Amino acid sequence: MRIQPKDKRMLLKAALGQIPCDLLIKNANLVNVITGEIYPANVFIYDGIIAHVEYKDLQSDLDKAKEVIDADNKYLIPGFIDAHEHIESSMMTPRNFAKAVIPHGTTTVITDPHEIANVWGMEGVRYMHDSGNGLPMRQLIDIPSCVPAVPGLENAGADFLADQIEELCGLERVIGLAEVMDFLAVINGEDRMMDILKTAEDRGLYIQGHAPFVSGRMLSAYICGGPNTCHETRMGDEGLEKLRSGMFVDARDSSIAKNVAAIWEGVKDIKFFDHLCFCTDDREADDILHAGHVNDVVRNAISCGMDPVAAIKSATYNSAREVKIENLGAVAPGFAADMLLVDDIRNPEPSHVIFGGKLVAQDGKLLVDIEDQEFEIERRNSMHVKSLSSEDFLLKADIEEGSVRVNLMKYNDLLLSSTVVSTEELPVKNGCVQLNDDDLKYVAVVNRHEGHDTIGLGVVRGFGTTTGALASTVSHDSHNLTIVYDNPENALIAANELIACGGGMCAVKDGKVLHTLELPCAGLISLKPAEQLAVDSAQMKDANRALGLVNIENPLLRIVTLALPVIPEAKMSDLGLVDVLNKKIIPLFAK
Q1: Which residues contact 475 (CB under 8 A, 6 or more apart)?
Q2: In angstroms, rounded to a whole number, what is the distance separating the alpha carbons of residues 208 and 250?
Q3: If residue 53 lies in a helix (H) or strand (E), which one and from where to where?
Q4: In which residue ranges of the chain is pLDDT below 70?
Q5: CA end-to-end span of the chain
Q6: What pLDDT is stored for residue 553 in this prediction?
Q7: Distance between CA atoms of residues 82 and 338, nearest Å
Q8: Which residues pair with residue 411 across a beta bridge?
Q9: Shortest CA distance to 96 belongs to which of 135, 61, 62, 60?
Q10: Which of 5, 223, 342, 378 has the smallest CB count inside 10 Å?
Q11: What is the C-alpha to C-alpha distance for residues 382 and 452, in angstroms, rounded to an integer?
Q12: Backbone CA torsion sign across 216, 218, 219, 224
């Protein structure tokens, strides 16, 4: 794929100096991510495309541009590309998201709208596409491949098969097939997934992967199936194996998982980094405003010891190659004119952000107006939950008194989303399973999608709360109503609070609501701008800490992966406890 000029003949004339260019950036120290060099240059831009880069005679043709930006010896680098992003996970609309990330130098995101697809199906994908029209950045769409994440293990709000993939290919900014999370379906050649992959291949889409802890022959089979990227790499040896296998590794620093340092430690001694890219995956508004976006990932990689030019290349040119865009991610003739001026390549906070040959942000401020638009879907109620009572949250046993062996989900680390199955002997009183220490909590996954009324109940150890109830409709990827709680009364209060407001997050302690973060759009997205949302999110974090989540950097997102049945080894769904690797529901009570 190439980003095409509107009039190639006129671009040629501009390149030859026969007609004036629209913009000249002079006196720049150009960071060439193709050769690895840094050298003085002047860059001429015509109609959104780089027409010429002059590095020999820097005093020539300075009058052949309608507008001039004097870089004053700042570094000129390509605009940052997020190789894998869920805009919904920022909890912002696409337009508010753009307002937040553009000043930090992100000019292109490869976004997977499978969060909203699990709630509103194809209509949700079209909303994310259409609400991203006309922005001073590229929001390129990958079609969700796994809705639901694993069929038969959860009930979501939609079901995508090959026909839905084919239809969504008609959207203008579709570029790929989004993360193929059901890696076992690929490895085992299951019909549904093979049909989806074939549709993507027939339409020329690149195929984005998701292969946590997949190794050896299973990794080879996954790659042979079609996916050739992975943002779910967590460890250095895992990253090295995937790079050696020819995958693109999208090293991730999100608001949930920060993997760049571990990956770099494992791959730093190899010779070439052409397949190492960067992504944010799930980064919330507060982090974007105060830490940055892709530029923050680059800064972190450099602080770990990565060469600054190589790190910039990983966030620009490499990502463009990954998604098969030939003329994006570098400052060279014929490339899209998305560029940044930075004072320090080790700390790439841009003074100037140029998108499509136009200055769109300067010194952290957006210079162009992003018109607010309203869409009916943004306020449509997505909470289709039957009337609940506290009895729905009782974990009932088949005995009145005594004890039972319970299969539960166990976190071994507050910083990781991976979990294991553990079996414990728990007391039973009045026919209900009791918790016998503060590290144990009940968990409920209540289906909130039309046509389903299933509720999965279980027990979790090591989640991190010590009291109260924490509820969320942001619950990857089914986005059912997930509640971690100490007693049914608190659980019911939290559930009803979110049902009433259309979804979001809620913390309850001792029968009182501590805070509710309202997300009326699909139960995932706030309609507030980043600055207001960040304040609301901070209050929600404080409420989470009041429930005991004090030893985790970002307690807001602890709950969101509890019901994600593509992260080994155990997760909860509205159907019960899931054995991820064997793709089956585990009985609540052990024999």
Answers
A1: 445, 481, 482, 559, 560, 562, 563, 564
A2: 10
A3: strand 49-54
A4: none
A5: 56
A6: 83
A7: 14
A8: 419
A9: 135
A10: 378
A11: 13
A12: positive
Dihedral class, residue 66 (left if φ above 0, else alpha if ψ from -120 to 50, else beta)? alpha
Tokens of 201: 């291949």
Count of alpha carbons within 13 angstroms of residue 81, beta-carbon side: 28
The dihedral through the CA atoms of 466, 510, 479, 297 has a sign that is negative
- Cβ proximity of 275 and 249 under 8 Å: yes
533: number of Cβ within 10 Å: 25
pLDDT of residue 60: 86
Calpha distance 59→52 (Å, rounded): 14
Tell me the pTM: 0.95
Q: Name the nearest CA neighbour of 407 among 393, 425, 394.
A: 425
Q: Determine the residue type at 290.
A: H
Residue 401 and residue 428 in contact, taking contact as beta carbons nearer than 8 Å: yes
Sign of CA dihedral 439, 394, 158, 92: negative
Contact 272, 301 (CB under 8 A): no
Location of structure tokens 């199955």 = 421
pLDDT of residue 523: 98
Tokens 């009326």 map to which residue? 520
DSSP SS3 for 50: strand
Q: What is the DSSP letter of 324?
A: T
- 47 and 325 Cβ atoms separated by less than 8 Å: no
Of 476, 473, 475, 533, the residue nearest 503 (C-alpha): 473
Residue 505 sits at φ, ψ, to 5 deg, of: -135, 150
In what helix (H) or strand (E) does residue 99 lie, and over which residues does it extend?
helix 94-101
Three-state SS at 97: helix
Cβ neighbors of 278 (< 8 A, separation 6 or more) are: 82, 83, 250, 251, 252, 253, 260, 294, 297, 298, 301, 311, 314, 315, 319
125's tokens: 């994908």
C-alpha to C-alpha distance for 562 and 589, rounded to whole angstroms = 20
The CA-atom distances, in angstroms, between 42 and each of 60, 68, 105, 261 are 9, 10, 20, 35
CA–CA distance, 21 with 399 (Å, rounded to integer): 81
Backbone angles phi, psi at 26, to 5 degrees: -110, 160
Whose CA is closest to 217, among 246, 187, 190? 187
Contact 552, 536 (CB under 8 A): no
The two beta strands, 75-78 and 21-31, are: parallel
